[in-house]
Sequence to fold (296 residues):
Amino acid sequence: MAIGIFDGVHRGHQAILRTAQKEARRLRAAPAALTFPAHPSRVLNPGRPVPLLQSFEQRCDWIRRYGINWIFPLHFTKSLSKLTPAEFVDRLLFRKWNLRGVVVGRDFRFGHRRAGTVRTLRDLLARRDAQVFSVDPVRCGGGVAQSTAVRRLLQAGRLPDAVRMLGHPFELAGRVVKGAGMGRRLGARTINLRLESNLMPRHGVYAGWLRPARGSKRPIVMNLGVAPTVHRGRGVRLETHVLDGRPVGFRPGIRLTVEVARFLRPERKFSSLAALRRAIQRDIRRAKKEMRNKRD
Fold:
């Protein structure tokens, strides 16, 4: 069983998941992952919780894409945070599962006040004739692949560096919500999404792909932010415009995934709707060029 938060399912996480699959085959066991739906900081530091790169649904989807189909959610609570390392192993891991082995990152910590280390885990599991496999950090682009590093890169608008560390496209997911019809007035009808994840990349205009649950992906230009020229006091939304000219027709409530491919420009407030309309047309032309190059 691989254990971790796995936020972003970046290259370091992928190494842990690969090791879990390899050792499971050797031990003739089923590979699985144990993860937390919410970040433990929501309990330990509720005033400043860590913003997650993905919703739990997105994270599970990527874990499955990397070959682990058995995923067990562990809800982090105050009582769980007070367990000693030995209690964590006895009351959680072995009360629920007959484990043959556990795979963690080299810097894995667990138990009250993070007292348990990989060595602690190895000693505790040895008593139950189970093995521990620790995986070294994965270096990428001059640094170590970490969720914290990916968050910083995305918030700085360094999308290519973030994608390199992730080892796969960066995606946003959300539910279609009814807009005010402003896109139609501006010459670019949009699909508006209320996003699931709570970490937002740098606000701005991006090119990318819309991935419906069924059918092929569609090239899009999108604005992530608050649309300051036409909206006041509105929360963050993702407004997407499909570039291929085909009918759209996604009803409110439908869940859609967006692959963010290229940062085009920061979000800004324009002096008039006419100026905004001209900027949107420039964005559309540039996004079409970018996505043609991506497809080629």
About this structure: The mean pLDDT is 92.
